[in-house]
């Protein structure tokens, strides 16, 4: 299973970006898809997650600004980021927890860099 993330880039503070991540390969089901991020000098943190049933969860720091959505048919997750701040600068990683060939496990994408200039 591969997770291919895209959509990162350079944006000014207050601007918007949309990240996308598509899962491909021999996937039976994906329960959770999420975005994590690693900011310079900080540990990786959960940004937002969504389940196959549509439940969502957000870090307090992004509530009201970021929206996670998912296309189950395409095994793709999106992260709409609005009102971006300099502190949102980080490498964003796509995550999935799913079942392949009877085995449930975590999958990580390669990361996409988001840089917010102040």
List the helices and strands and how they pair.
Layout: E1 2-6, E2 9-12, E3 17-24, E4 29-38, E5 45-51, E6 56-58, E7 66-71, E8 76-81, E9 90-100, E10 103-108, E11 112-117
Description:
The chain is an all-beta fold and about 120 residues long. Helices cover about 0% and strands about 60% of the residues. The protein is built from no helices and eleven strands. It has strands at about 1-5, 10, 15-25, 30-40, 45-50, 55-60, 65-70, 75-80, 90-100, 105-110, 110-115. Strands 2, 4, 5, 6, 9, 10 and 11 form a seven-stranded mixed beta sheet that branches. It has a four-stranded antiparallel beta sheet with strand order 1-3-8-7, with no helix packed on it. Strand 4 (about 30-40) and strand 5 form a beta hairpin. The radius of gyration is 14 Å and the shape is elongated. It starts with a strand and ends with a strand. The model has no long low-confidence stretch (mean pLDDT about 95).
Write a concise keyword list for the protein shown above.
118 residues, mainly beta, seven-stranded mixed beta sheet, 11 strands, elongated
Class derived from helix and strand content: mainly beta
Fraction in beta strands? over 45%
Number of helices: 0
Helix content: under 10%
| Distance, first to last CA | 37 Å
Give a short overview.
The chain has 118 residues and is an all-beta fold.
